[in-house]
Amino acid sequence: MPETVTLSVARYRPEQEGEPVFQEYEVPFRKDWVVLDALNHIKDRLDGSLSFRWSCRMGVCGSCGMKVNGEPKLTCAAFLASHLPGPIRVEPLDYFAVVRDLVVDLRDFLGKLKKVKPWLVRRHEKAIAEGEYRQTPDELDAYKPWSMCINCMLCYSACPIYGLEPGFIGPAAIALAQRYNADSRDQGAAERLEILSGHDGIWQCTFVGECSKVCPKNVDPAGAIQQYKLAAATDWLKALLPWSGK
Amino acid sequence: MEIFSSDVLVVGGGGAGLRAAIAVAETHPRLRVAVISKVYPMRSHTVSAEGGAAAVIKSGDSLDEHAYDTISGGDWLCDQDAVEAFVREAPAEMLRMEHWGCPWSREPDGSVAVRPFGGMKAQRTWFAADKTGFHMLHTLFQTTLKHDVIQRYDECFVTRLLVDEGRCQGVVAIELASGKVLAITAKAVILCTGGCGKVFPFTTNAAIKNGDGMALAYRAGAPLKDMEFVQYHPTGLPFTGILITEASRSEGGWLLNKDGYRYLQDYDLGKPTPTPVLRSMELGPRDRLSQAFVKEQQKGRTLTGPYGDYVHLDLRHLGQKLIDKKLPFVRELCLKYENIDPVKEMIPVRPVVHYMMGGVSTDIDGKTPLPGLYAAGEAACVSINGANRLGSNSLPELLVFGARAGVSAASFAADQAEPGAAVLSQAHDEERRLEERLQRKAGGTERVATLRSEMQTTMEESAGIYRSAPALEKAASELRALQARFERVALDDHSYTFNTELTGVLELSYMLDLAEAIVHSARERRESRGSHQRTDHPQRDDERYLRHSLAYRGQDGVPRIEYLPVTITRWPPGQRVYGR
Q1: Distant-in-sequence contacts of A79-85, Cβ < 8 A, 24+ apart
Q2: Is A107-244 in the same CATH topology as A4-104?
């Protein structure tokens, strides 16, 4: 095991640099350390001016997504030991504007998330006094995987379509739309149809499947998109049939 | 400086803050409500809560039993009127979460499932596998998106409260992306900024848990209540402090010492049985379990690893099927961060700082003594948690009291006039202070990380699971010295764009104030109660200390401790009995 490892970190300080440059830092190598620990070592001991987001350090807050040796990863779960011998290249996620160093601009996603109406839509709300909506464990399992999205943005950074078509609503937002569509308590699928089937919706996706590969929570956005395409195509066919009752 | 205005301004976008904002939007739709948070709301630390949320829902359980468990769990320091409101309103709040889409785990008939939890005499803890906080936070956040009236200031760091004519009328904040200073006026402000676990070196708490709101209130003259009560969770992973949920014990996990012995039986917590018994052994309260660890350590019966002493949490007998169904996150965390598979191996664990029972003193409606200022969630002390919070009470707490604070802040705001000019002049003063702090280059000799780690060491050595007068005295003077050195902190980073070193400095200054409040409150409480154990005063002393402590910030920055009576309604102080 080496005593130290070099991190090559993308720096971008808009007041200082016209475009990103790489800066190398030598940090102690420890087998328990993840890339995020090394970044914190740099911040605390070597260079307080390095900016990055992090919070929970347990893979659930979704803050610390970056590219490590070219792959989108949660840096709190990317061990130094898996990236030897170095230098380990750390960069901001692709396809987002860089605000500063490793910090990217997430406003585009927040806007898209709201567009897919990621909340439970009911025609008639049940009164609280009437208790819960019944949902069997199987009905729960039908949408549970898509509810596990932590909004870490790794899937957008891996999605070549999002890279080419910034308007594309994108893997996480579609998975979250499908999370509600597939929830037995929800009645909002028709309201989500317009955005999901519209110009920037699911039909943009060519099923490269990179989103599902990089997802740290096994949400499988590609699966959500396929399922939705199938449902949408079936509805469309049904609507064409003379006995569809339309 | 940019100036904005709102009617109700919620600081913090975690569970309590989002619940408060929705309460304002639903009950006072004409008020302008805003949420300001230093992180995007879905990053808030509510996301890390694992095991569940308690609320009476099943037949055979009762509100009185939930109240009694909470009060005895809190060693009688809870305000019983607040506890009664809490247990009464928790079920409706939990059902509301269900109606908003929270993916609660279910029984085969489709009703919500409940599990046992530490210190609870009935099964009443609702759960979404072992990611309950994550699902609640995302459900709340996604639900706020349907309320167009809720405005958000994401990634804006609040640096002070604006107080004029004895009334809180807004905040000053830094927009991180641009470095711009914002003055946001408000007719009522609700602090929902969480706890301050980062005052300690070893904690389950996220990096953002710096007690911002507690310090803001404290500096504005509002008292902090019961700050000496710091919860150690008995089962954290040794290096990272990652929480291994209490649910792993409620599903049947055992705590074993180095001899493979279920040592809790030696600490008046009952007799070991193969399957879990409520309010017994591994399902005892967190304070007692963490204290038992220290005793076991003193007897030389713990194991030693590179990151200190530990014991084993054994889940192997539960089998892969149960673990994958009920504790999938525990398995994921162990595999990913410790390279251990709990299906086949024992998990090394040790006590870890988890939760602040204390916080900004509020009444039952989230109101602080400073007019216009409200608080809810871990940032607040109502108090329902007393000297020790029961596991799975914090999630329903942030719903019940988030909603209450939202409603009461909104009715207050509805009657207030627009803030006056004095408020903006204060905001300009604050802008100058921040600019000076950012650009100061001369004379700086101290690094923020060094001071932070010295503060954390001081706190662990003095205000940990066991405390004593000499250690607390020493800590009080060390913290004074750190406050003096803080004035000489130097920044490497003078940029306006996403300057996390500057926010790190401001967070450290908040934490130093809170560390002093904790140490002084602990020094003055010369008894042992719940999580506050004094080796020099080992008994509970109801005569002198059945009272809440209130820490006020003195002129010189040194805390001044006063006391407030505890509200007792139906449960006179008694002995805490577990396992018998």
Answers
A1: A79/A31, A79/A33, A79/A34, A79/A35, A80/A5, A80/A29, A80/A30, A80/A31, A80/A33, A80/A34, A80/A35, A80/A37, A80/A38, A81/A1, A81/A29, A81/A31, A83/A35, A84/A2, A84/A5, A84/A29, A85/A2, A85/A5
A2: no
pLDDT digits (tens, 9 = 90+) for B156-196: 999 999 999 999 999 999 999 999 999 999 999 999 999 99
pLDDT digits (tens, 9 = 90+) for A14-53: 999 889 999 999 999 999 999 999 999 999 999 999 999 9
pLDDT at residue number B176: 98
Domain boundaries, chain A: 4-104, 107-244
Confidence (pTM): 0.97
Evaluate whether B171 touches B215 at the Cβ level (below 8 Å): no
- Catalytic residue from among B66, B135, B138, B233: B233
Q: Is the Cβ–Cβ distance between B18 and B40 less than 8 Å? A: no
What class, spelled out in words, does domain A4-104 have in CATH? alpha beta
Q: How far is A24 from A42, CA to CA, in rounded Å?
A: 10
Beta carbons within 10 angstroms of residue B379's beta carbon: 30
Question: B28 catalytic, yes or no?
Answer: no
Active site residue B520: no
* Mean pLDDT value of segment B322-346: 95
Of B266, B364, B289, B335, which is closest to residue B118 (Cα–Cα)? Answer: B289
Q: From the candidates A100, A138, A219, which should be mutated to test the interface with B, based on the most B CB atoms within 10 A?
A: A100
Annotated active-site residue in B43, B124, B160, B249: B249
Model ipTM value: 0.96
Q: What does DSSP assign to residue A64?
A: -
Q: What percent of chain B has a predicted confidence (pLDDT) above 70?
A: 100
Q: If residue B286 lies in a helix (H) or strand (E), which one and from where to where? A: helix B286-298
Residue A245 has pLDDT above 50, yes or no: no
Regarding the domain delimited by A107-244, which CATH topology (the fold level of the hierarchy) does it fall under? Fumarate Reductase Iron-sulfur Protein; Chain B, domain 2 (1.10.1060)
CA distance linking residue A209 with residue B274, whole number of Å: 46
User: A103, B40: Cβ pair inside 8 Å?
Assistant: no
- The phi and psi torsions of B387 (rounded to 5 degrees) equal -90, -5
What are phi and psi for residue B359, nearest 5 degrees?
170, -165
Q: Which 3-state string (H, E, C) describes B9-32?
A: EEECCCHHHHHHHHHHHHHCCCCC
Cβ-Cβ contacts under 8 Å, A151 against chain B: 40, 42
Q: How far is CA B343 from the centre of its chain?
A: 31
CB-closest option in A13, A53, A118 to B145: A118
Q: Is some CB atom of chain B closer than 8 A to the CB atom of A10?
A: no
- Residues in A touching B500 (Cβ below 8 Å): 43, 51-52
**CA B538 to CA B8: how far, in whole Å?**
45
**Subunit contact B332:A59, Cβ cutoff 8 A:** yes
Q: A-contacting residues of B 95-124, CB under 8 Å?
A: 95-96, 98-101, 103-112
